[in-house]
Amino acid sequence: MGSLMRRIVALTLAGCVGGALAAAVSTGVAGAAPVGDFYTPPGTLPAASGAIVRTEPMPLYLTAPGHGGEYPLTGRLVMYTSRLEDGTPTAVTGTYVDSSQPWRGKGPRPTVVIAPGTSGQGDQCAMSHAFSTGLYATVTPPSFSANQEALSAGLWNALGARVFVTDYIGLGTPGIHTYVNRVEEAHAVLDAARAADALSGTGAATPLALWGYSQGGGAVAAAAELAPTYAPDLNIKGVWAGAPPADLTAVLAKVDGGLIGGVIGFAMNGFVARHPELANVLHERMTPDGVAVLRDLSTECIGDVILRHPFLRTGLYTKDHRSLLDNLRTIPSAMRVLDEQRIGRLKPQTPVLITSGRNDDTVPYGQARQLALDWCSKGATVTFHTDELPPIAPGTTIGNHFGPEFIDGYGTNGAVSYVLDRLNDVPIAQHCSIN
């Protein structure tokens, strides 16, 4: 499978680049797609989680031509139902890409549910907005968001799988995006799988895989351990959780002052939305400029954060000039909320591959490895792989956070091979392997 995998990855990359150029020529401005009424839910939602609310066709310029040469492929923009952490029904959007190639594995054609990496907190940052052409961009107000999952979606499509990429709760749809909220991200992923089963018409027996890196790695890790109780109907065969933020206290400490330190604001805004009692105690410890930055971040994408708030240090926005995390440590209610996000206290019943770079400068290696140890101690089937990429421009995220994503995700013996083996029912020699 190695040489075939390399050819497919190369073709997928070529398709992404060629598709982006074609989209730019045909639209004038790549990704200048409007934010329409599609994202506004109806007054009444279906009662079942994972039910389809509405769909509409979407041209896919970044996906390689179909088996018969058709281009562009047509995906579907989808609204489906899910649940907030307290069980309240909500609407979520995402992108569904039906199979356009023969399935290259064994058994029935599977569906791969992709949980995206960090895209932002503003509605315009929803991955589906950037999915057609690869980029969503506006001038007034200035904002841009890229389709970070073009490669993963295109690769699995080229392998013959169906693909569903969730936007997460509150991205595109009304309400704040509850960034790194363990329960809500898990719900969005698992209900996306249900929605995909409904769209394909193949039912709950459909083989499924969950795929995610960084924020997405945390989302699928949380989904893996919540699936036995929240979605026991799903046939999940395997999971890749790359660089999962399993312990937010460690992550917040690591990312503060890094290139994308503004994501701390995404997290705080999401926690306040679900726990309004935190607003006053948080704002009491922040300067007026700090409160304003939190408000600004709530409408920004990760690209905007890099341009407007690079290397953000939260101590510049607190009254005592200590980091925001150090201030949170003095607020028991805030620490309880952070502790509730800890992944690893429940046992997943599906095999999981966790990967992490030893020198990851954004999502710390130690807490990812601890997740593997926690799950192993519960008897879960876990493979943990360490990426030994040496330090590259520490603090910039680009080398030591994104580097392992490509090496471990798309390498010859990486996550694609692992997930294919799970979908092909290849036995795992050890229930717990940590290296």
Automatic annotation (TrEMBL):
SUPFAM superfamilies xref list: alpha/beta-Hydrolases (SSF53474)
GO biological process: lipid catabolic process
Keyword Signal on entry: yes
Any Pfam family the entry gives: LIP
Keywords, alphabetical: Signal
Superkingdom per UniProt: Bacteria
Molecular function, one GO term: triacylglycerol lipase activity
Signal peptide: 1-22
Name the record gives this protein: Lipase family protein
Classification lineage: Bacteria, Bacillati, Actinomycetota, Actinomycetes, Mycobacteriales
